[in-house]
Amino acid sequence: MKVDATMDEARGLFDSPTHRHNLGGGSLWTRMLPVLSVLSVVCLLGTPAIGAPGFKKFRAPLSGTVYAARIREHRRVRDERGGSMRKERPRDKQRNRLRRTALLVFAITACLTLVPVVPAASQSTSSRVITAPYSGSATSIITRGITACGTAKFVHPATFNLRTGIGGWADSATGKTCGKYWGGSQGEGWAEAQFLLTINIPAKKALLAPTMIVAAWAFGLNGSTTLVSGACSPSFSASSSGCTTFAQIYILASAQIYDVSNGSLTNSSNSWAGFYNGTDYLKLCNYGSCIGGLIGTPGNFSYSVSPSWFFNVSGMKATHHYQLMISIFGSTSAGTSVVSAGLTGAAASASADFYSFGDGAHLSSITET
User: What's the pLDDT tens digit per position in 299-314?
Assistant: First the structure.
C-alpha cells in the first residue's frame, strides 16, 4: 500500500499545474517545441551534406527511433482505450510531449556535438603539380682554360630548354707533361659549365597554412677518366715536394624560392651532396722520402639519380610572384702538377656527357601542397 500511495502522490504531483508548467505543460514549452523540431530537422538534414563519414548511419537509427516511439505510443493509447482513437487524456498528452521533447533535445545535442568534427574529418589536402613547359628564364655560363700542354672543349654547349624541362652539356679535358719541369703546373685543362634557372611558380590561392614545394629532378651522366702516372723525381733538399696527376668530374646543385614581390629568399630544407668521380696519382715527399699512390680507378662509368629539393614556404600569398631559382654547376678537368719536383711521361683525361645520357638534367615536376 505504501508503494501505491507513493505512486498516487507522484501522479498527483505530475498532474499538478506547477509541474506541468515546469516540464512542458505551460505555454513556454508549447512555443519551444516547434522551434526545437525545426532545428532538429535542419541539423539532421544539413549535416550529412557536409560529408562526414558515417554520419548518415547515425541519422537513420535516430529517425527510426523517433518513428518507432510514436508507433508504440499510438498503439498503447489505442489498446488502453479499447481500440478507439478518441482524444488523449491530459496525463498521456503530457507524457507524449515529454518524450518528444527529450528526443528532440537529444537529436540537437548529438548534432551540435558532431558538426564541429565534420570539417576536420572531411577536409582534404589538395596539391598542384607543375610540369613542362615551364615559364621563366634560363642562363648558361661556360668557361674553359688550359696551361702548358692541356686542352679543354665543349662537345655540346650548356643549354636548357624550358619548353621540355631538359638541359645539359658535354665536355672534355686533357693534360700531360711537356718534358721535365720543375715548379707549378706542367699541363692542365679544365672545362666548367653552369645553369642558372628561374622558374615562375604561381601561388596557390587561399593558403591558410605553411606550404610545401618540391622540385623533383632526374640527372643522368656518362663519363670516363684515364690516367698515366709518369715518373716523379722529388727534391732531396726540400721539406715538401711531390707530383700529382689527376682526372676529375663533379656536379653540384642548389635551389631557393624567391619572392619577387618582397625580395625574400627561402632556402631548401634539404641539400644534395652532388656527384663526384675522379682518379688521382699522388707522390708526396719529405727530403726525398716519399709516400703516395693511386686513388680511385680510371675507366668508364654511368651515373643517374633523382634528387628533390623541399621548401617549407609559410604564408604564400596569391597576390605575390614566386620563382624557383636553381643553380647547377659542373666541372671536368685533367692535368698534372709538381712542387719542387720533376715529372715526365704523365697524362690524364676526363670527359662528361651530361646531355644525351638519361636526358642530362631533367626538371621532372614542381609540386605545391
Answer: 999 999 999 999 988 7
